# Entry
Amino acid sequence: MKAEIRRLSVLVEEVHREMDRPVVPATRKAVAVAVLRNPHAGTYVEDLSQLIEIGAELGGYLGARCLSALGITPEQVESYGKAAMVGENGELEHAAAILHPALGKPLRDVLGGGAALVPSSKARGGPGVMLDVPLGHKDAAYVRSHFDGVQVWLNDSPRADEIMVAVAITDSGRPLPRVGGLKASEIEGRDGLR
# Structure
């Protein structure tokens, strides 16, 4: 693997009750976070292909870690998302290079597809700063019950010369959704929107 990973964390969140009401089945999210050395920290580099290749590696790797953590099959995945935070010696374009050109296809390959864009966020921060990972339905962007997110923070990451990369998946939408819109059962899945 080209990514020089210092730390890997995998977290699972389950919600069993919301507003004193049972959530049955419980909603579940998994997020896998890799903290890696930023090969371009502190320097301007025109060609970011090394980070693009790292993104391609991480898409499948982190997606598989999430699947394993939830103990589900690819067909049971309902939502996904990705995010990256560069340390203070990095630039947002380093996060974009990891997330956008090549991370999505290997992630979709592990998850058995996905017609919708993978929601993403980029940030700059230091150790202990919260990283927000947006979530959306993997096959139809307009499914409001799946507009969600998961937050992750690591007490020692990212350091100035690191990048923290996160991939998240769910086997459900938000607990007790009731804001209308397209339902998951109504998805056509042709254009990634509906």
Summary: Residues 5-186 form a domain with the 60s Ribosomal Protein L30; Chain: A; fold (CATH 3.30.1330.110). The CA atoms of residues 133 and 150 lie 5 Å apart. The helical segments are 49-70, 92-99, 104-111.
